[in-house]
Amino acid sequence: MFGIWGHPKAASMTYYGLHSLQHRGQEGAGIVVTDGERLKGIKGEGLVNDVFDEKKLDSLKGFGAIGHVRYGGKSGIENIQPLLFHSSSGSLALSHTGNLINANDLRHQLEMQGSIFQTNTDTEVLAHLIKRSGYLATKDKVKNALSMVKGAYALIMLTENELIIAQDPNGLRPLSIGKVGDAYCVASETNAYDLIGAEYIRDVEPGELIIINNEGIHEDRFSLSGSHAMCTMEYIYFSRPDSDINGVNVHTARKNLGKQLALEANVEGDVVTGVPDSSISAAIGYAEQAGIPYELGLIKNRYVGRTFIKPTQELREQGVKMKLSPVRKVVEGKRVIMVDDSIVRGTTSKRIVRMLKEAGATEVHVCISSPPMTNPCFYGIDVSTHEELIAANHSVEEMREIIGADSLTFLSVEGMLKAIGQKGLGENCGQCMACFTGKYPTEIYPDTPLPYEKEMK
Ligand code: SF4
Fold first, then answer.
1. Reaction catalysed by this chain (predicted)?
2. Which of 38, 61, 72, 298 counts the most CB atoms within 10 A of its CB?
3. Between the CA of residue 167 and those of 102, 184, 338, what are the distances in Å?
C-alpha cells in the first residue's frame, strides 16, 4: 500500500510507490486520487505496469492519492483495492493489508441489518462500519469502526479532504510514514521512499490513528492496548531486503538468521547457495558464519512472478519450472548447502533438490532460515491450511525423505528470536511467531476464515 497527501502529482508518485511494492502482490493494482472535490479511481488485474500507462495516470488529477497491489485472495476486479464508495455524505476509498478475523460475523450482522455487499473482501466490512457510524467527524467514525474489528489491519483511507492511516493494536503488518518536500506519504515498506526521493519519518505505532489534511498531521490513538507483534515472516520472506521494519533492515535481519542457522546446523559442505531472491541474504550470512564459500548455484528468471501466489496448482507448477535454473559449473561434483527461507508444502524444495542433483551436486543439504511452519496464518499471509503444511504432519526426518535431501535443518524458535527479536518491544521481542508456535497474538474464533483459498509453494 502507498498513499500521499499534498503533492501535485499524487497519482504518479503513488504509481512509483506501488512499483517498489510490486513484490507484495501481483494479481491486481489500483490508485484512487482526490482533487478536494471528488475521488476518482482506476484499477485492474495484473502488475502495476499492466494496469497503468501515462494516459491513465494523467487522467487521475489530484493532490492526495492511495494505492494498493493485490496479493492472492478471491479473483475478480471488484475485489481489487482501493475499494471506492460514494454516498451523499462523501466518498471513501480504502486500502487494507492484513485480514480481519471477525469479518464473517460482522458481515452477517450487517447483512441482517440490510447492508448489501459489492465484494468478497473483509475490507468492505470496514467501509460499511465507517459509513454507518452516527458520528460526524471522520476520526470518530473510524475509531468507532475499528473498535469492532479484530485481526490484522494496516489501513490507508482517503476522503475528499483527508488521508487516514491506522495500524492494528498488534502492529502485525508494516506501515510507516515519510515526507517528500511538503507532502506526507505512507507506505507498507520503506523501500518505496527511496524511489520517490522521500525521507522516512517513522513507523506507525500499534493502535495508532493518523489523519493528514491541508492543516497538517494529526496523531491520535484508537486503542490504548497497543503491543508489538510484527509478522516474523515479513523479515524472513515477504518484505524487500532494502526495507527497514521497526528500524531493522530486512537484509541484515535475514543475514543474522543465516548466521544463527549456521551456528545451529551440523552440516559439512563445499558451497553455500540461496534460493533466489528471498533466501540470498540468509545464505550469505550462513556462508560468512560457516566459512564456506557462497556461490550463485541457482538463477532466477526475472520475468516470472512469485510462484506461490499463482492461483492454481497447475500454474504454480509451471511457474517453478520456468522460474529457477541451476548453475551446473557451480554445483557439479560439490556438496551443496542450499539455504531457503521456509518450507510450506515441500513441493518447491523437492523440485529444487532434484534440480541441483540433476546438475551434478553430490549431496544437497537443505538449511531453512526459519522454524518448521506448523500452524496456519489468519493475518493475511497465505501459509495454507493445517492439512497442507508439511511440517504440521511430518517429522523433520520424514520431511527430509519427502524432499529428497541428504540432510534437513530448521532454525530453532529461540535462534530466530535471537537473530531478529528486538528487546524492549515486549512479549516475544515484538514478534508474531504464531505459524511456528501456534500462539496467536489475538483471539481466534472457531469460524475465523483463512484469508485465502489458494495454493502455496
Ligand atoms: S502467523 Fe506467521 S505469517 Fe501470520 S502474521 Fe504471524 S508470523 Fe506472520
1. 5-phospho-beta-D-ribosylamine + L-glutamate + diphosphate = 5-phospho-alpha-D-ribose 1-diphosphate + L-glutamine + H2O
2. 298
3. 17, 17, 37
pLDDT digits (tens, 9 = 90+) for 39-69: 999 999 999 999 999 999 999 999 999 999 9
Q: Are strands 176-180 and 163-167 parallel, antiparallel or unpaired?
A: unpaired
Which residues' Cβ are closer than 6 Å to ligand 1? 172, 231-233, 377, 379, 381, 383, 432-435
Which residue reads 489475538 in cell numbers?
Answer: 442
- In sequence order, what are the residues at sequence separation of 6 or more whose Cβ sits closer than 8 angstroms to the Cβ of residue 438? 374, 375
Q: Which is it for the CA torsion 199, 202, 203, 204, positive or negative?
A: negative
pTM of the model: 0.91
As separate numbers, helices (DSSP H) first and strands (DSSP E) second, the chain gives 17, 23
Which of 71, 227, 232, 452 most suits a substitution to test ligand 1, by most atoms within 8 Å of the C-beta? 232
Residue 301 exposure: Cα atoms within 13 Å on the Cβ side: 12
Q: Which of 379, 413, 448 to mutate to test the pocket of ligand 1 (most atoms within 8 A of CB)?
A: 379
105-119, 135-149, 200-214 — which one is most confidently predicted on average?
200-214
Angstrom distance (rounded) from CA 74 to CA 119: 9
Q: Does position 310 have pLDDT exceeding 90, yes or no?
A: no
Q: Which of 32-46, 152-166, 224-238, 367-381 has the weakest average pLDDT? A: 224-238
Ligand 1 nearest-atom number relative to CA 152: 5
Which residue's alpha carbon is at the smallest distance from atom 2 of ligand 1? 435
If you average pLDDT over residues 326-335, what whole number do you get? 97
Dist. CA 172 → ligand 1 center (Å):
8
- Average of pLDDT values for 245-270? 96
185 is in an annotated binding site: no
Of all protein residues, the one whose alpha carbon is nearest to atom 5 of ligand 1 is 231
Which residue has cell 479532504?
Answer: 161
- Give the atom of ligand 1 at the shortest distance from the alpha carbon of 436: 2
pLDDT tens-digit readout, 442-454:
988 655 655 543 3
Phi-psi region of 360 (alpha: psi -120 to 50; beta: other; left: phi over 0): left
Kindly give the distance from the C-alpha atom of residue 254 to the centroid of ligand 1, in angstroms, as a whole number.
Answer: 16
Is 340 a known ligand-binding residue? yes
Task: Determine which of 49-63, 165-179, 386-400 has the lowest per-residue pLDDT on average.
Answer: 386-400
46: burial class by Cβ within 10 Å (0-12, 13-18, 19+)? middle
- Tell how far the Cα of 435 is from the centroid of ligand 1, in angstroms: 5
Could you identify the atom of ligand 1 that is nearest to the CA of residue 173? 5
Band (pLDDT 50/70/90 cuts) for residue 455 is: very low
432 labelled as ligand-binding? yes
Spacing, Cα 449 to ligand 1 middle (Å): 15
